[in-house]
Write the structure tokens for this entry.
Amino acid sequence: MHDPDAMTQPPPSGYIDIHSHLLPGVDDGCADLEQSLACVHRLMEAGFVGSICTPHIYPEIFPDNKPTNIAQWTRQLRQALADNGVDYPIWSGGELRLLPDSVSWMQEHGVPTLAESRCVLMDFWEKKWPRCVEETMRWLLDNGYQPILAHPERLPATPDLDKRLMALEAMGVWLQGNFRCMTGEEGYHADRLVRHLLQGGRYKLMAMDMHRPETLEGRLDGLQLVAAEFGQGTLEQLAITAPRELIFGVGG
């Protein structure tokens, strides 16, 4: 859905979070406007200049989280930020839970693209790799969309996980890593795999996947660890240049 109030020109250079549970009261992210404001203030202190709001799209748990509603809630939060004197651009999106009926759901309710781009952020958590992953990714690619798999390093550890991820990448799927996985807070497997994928240059983007104010510091620690271990240039490519290309079609 077109958002006439969304920023169409790039903000000043800085980090842009393309995966954010910033909208108040719509999923397991920020519970209310106070939490949303606290998160935005902390993000701005850390050098962020904008966020894409990507609430969970999981019809069984969050039935109201559809593209039209998410766009409306994003506009409401944008106005609330302005009313509180906060100059921080936000855009609407979503994090689509991959399920057997995901394609039919998108055909009925619309494709939840990020910031009116052609990019679609998705996740899944099943211990056994679902058949619908490749089927949904192929449908998106065939219809001109760019699928992005969120935080693959958090998927259950299986012997063929890396092979599966490489097959998705060969299809044209992008991978998005979570900064928090750098800190060990997401477990040993995620800690190792996030570094493996970074070392191989396999992430297109990295993001905060922020939920509530109390979880922000670990995520920001992870951002700094990426710079310390893989270089400031790598961090800027993943969190500044690539997001700006996604939203505005221009680099950092």
Remarks:
- Helices lie at 33-45, 67-83, 102-109, 132-142, 161-171, 188-199, 216-230, 232-248.
